[in-house]
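Hi R.,

Here's the chain you asked about this morning:
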Amino acid sequence: MKRQGAAGTARRPDFIEAGLALAERVSRVAVWLGGGALILVACLVTLEVVLRGVFRIGLSAATEISAYVLAVSTAWAYAYTLLERNHVRVDAVIRLLPPRLLVWMDVLAMLALAWFAGMLLWHGWGVAGMSIETRARAMTPLSTPLWIPQGLWVFGIAFFFATCLLLLLRALRLIAAGEVQAASDLIGTFAREREGAVEAEDAARRQARRDEDAASA
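And the predicted structure, written out as tokens:
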């Protein structure tokens, strides 16, 4: 993960550190599962195209299933993208600010993202709850109970919201401790030089892991 600068000082484990470590593990599993599901859906859609073109047979469920998988896998990928700091941010102007002011812009951006995730969670939970109460089903041949895809989507958004809060709390604690650069490394965008250095560190760590695996084999 691209936040090595934030780990400069040894601390006793607490709920924030433990929560972030858990979020990293869960998000990594989620993106692998989501990616696998998307590959399976791509195969299903390909099969439908072939059947329609050759045998004039359609799979009516392909479109519905692909929509559910896309929505759920995307929701569960938000947290991983945030932890890896791969969300798009336009920082051409704020990068001109001094570090102590820049880090507060990063905090403001994280607050805005947490608010947005919270709104998605609030309204998504309302929709899913209504589907449970009314036992709503999709108007499709599968007649899918709507609370299933909606619930999976809501849990993904909830995980994203919790990750936002954990990162925000950790950043504020680092700022309070005077570790401004560590906080910026945690929730800010990469400067070009810093990004290159972190990528080099990641590459070296992956190579070291491969060397260890080869030696143990």
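Residues 4-11 have pLDDT under 50 and may be disordered.

Let me know if you need anything else.
M.
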